[in-house]
Structure formats: C-alpha cells, structure tokens
Hints:
It contains two helices and nine strands, in the order H-E-E-E-E-H-E-E-E-E-E. By secondary structure, the chain is α+β, with helices and mostly antiparallel strands. Mean pLDDT is about 85; it is low at about 15-20.
Amino acid sequence: MKRAFVLCAAVCLSAVFALNAGAGNPDVEFKIKVNKDGFSDSNGRLIDAPFHVKKGEFVRVTFLFDEKTSEVLRDLMRTAEEQRGFVHAFALHNGKEIVAETQELNLKNRQAILDFIAGDKGALSYKIYCTLMCFGMEHLHNLTIEVG
Ligand SMILES: [Cu+2]
C-alpha cells in the first residue's frame, strides 16, 4: 500500500514536471537572422528550403535583428513618413489564417518570437512573412515550415 502511494506520487510529480517543460521549453527552435536581404541561418547563409517539424511539437521561431546599425541610423535621419524601412513584424499563416504574430523587430527590440504547436487545427504547412512595408519585404515573405 505504502509502496503504491510512493509510486503514485512519483508519477504525479513527473507529470507536473513534464507539463512545466511543455510550457517553457520548445521541442524545436529555429533561430533566424533577419535583414533586408532575407532570412538567414546562424552562419549568415540565406535560407532557401523549408524547415520540417513533427505534428504536435511545440515549435519556437526566434527572429534576430541583423541589419547594419549604420544603415538603420541613416534611415532614422530621414523624415518620419519615410522611415520604418528597418522594422519588421512576422506573421505565421497556416494556409487558412494567421495563427501567431511577433512583436516588432527593430534596432531596440532585437529579438522576436513565434510559438506554436505544429499541425494544430490540421495545418500541414506554414508560411512566415513580414507584415510591414519594409526594406527587403520582397525577400521576407516566404519562409516555409512543413509538418511531417
Ligand atoms: Cu520587414
């Protein structure tokens, strides 16, 4: 009887820890540099192939601001309505609708995150694109994540 209780307590505790891990730690994380030339990996190589994830995985996409500071500062010297060329914000689209959006990625906020569960609502693939009129928008519209 006592042994059964200890076993039960151990199982319950491990379940709690597993839940905590699920809330805080993604199963997969992609770190992506962003600048006006497009999305690139940690080595600075432009990303031209889809990422693959498994259904049910907790996926995190972390965007890192990678514009040249001197260029951004030059842009900030222009008139207000001409600025914002070096500000990005990303949407995650599952083929039907936007399911997540980042905060703005800019000189001051140099990291932005998209979290989602792969395959939620039957999604088979995702597109990530910048939702702002920015420098490089033609290169920042087609990051693909495929499920399975
Ligand atoms: Cu942008």
